[in-house]
Amino acid sequence: MARKDWLWFDALGLPAWASAASGPLTLSMSAPGATVAVPDKVISLPELASQEEAEIIGFTAGQGAGCHQRLRALGLRPGLALRMLHNPGCGLVLLQVNGSRLALGRGVAAKILVRRRGA
After folding, report:
1. Coil vs helix vs strand at 58
2. Domains of the chain by range and CATH?
3. Residue 20: closest CA among 31, 6, 36
4. Alpha carbon distance 36, 16 (integer Å)
5. What's the rounded Cα separation, in Å, for the pair 63 and 65?
6. pLDDT digit of tens for each residue in the chain (119 aa)?
7. 99 touches 80 (CB < 8 A)
8. Does pTM top 0.70 for this prediction?
């Protein structure tokens, strides 16, 4: 598997690097190099099943910082609890966040790193 590096933002909004090679996901506070292993409990949002609860851990950067800014504008921030209301396995996912429902495309949702609640 080819190496993938992403810029993401931690719970304090600080930039960090995430990398997935043929091993576990690793994170580093500097560009790819020295890394620290992240527990396997960190997953992307679309991996949640319907009715599962999770906490946002951070965001992977896609095509520039625009996606990250858009997610923050929607009220999504690290540390925020959410519930997956509907995840059919393709297409949109429906979330409950702060009492509101939010629909996200699967590609955008995949840029959100979460940890299952109670895991």
Report:
1. strand
2. 4-37 (no CATH), 42-116 (2.30.30.90)
3. 6
4. 11
5. 7
6. 444 555 555 554 555 555 554 445 554 444 444 444 455 588 999 999 999 999 999 888 654 567 777 888 888 988 999 999 999 988 999 999 999 999 999 988 998 999 998 75
7. no
8. no
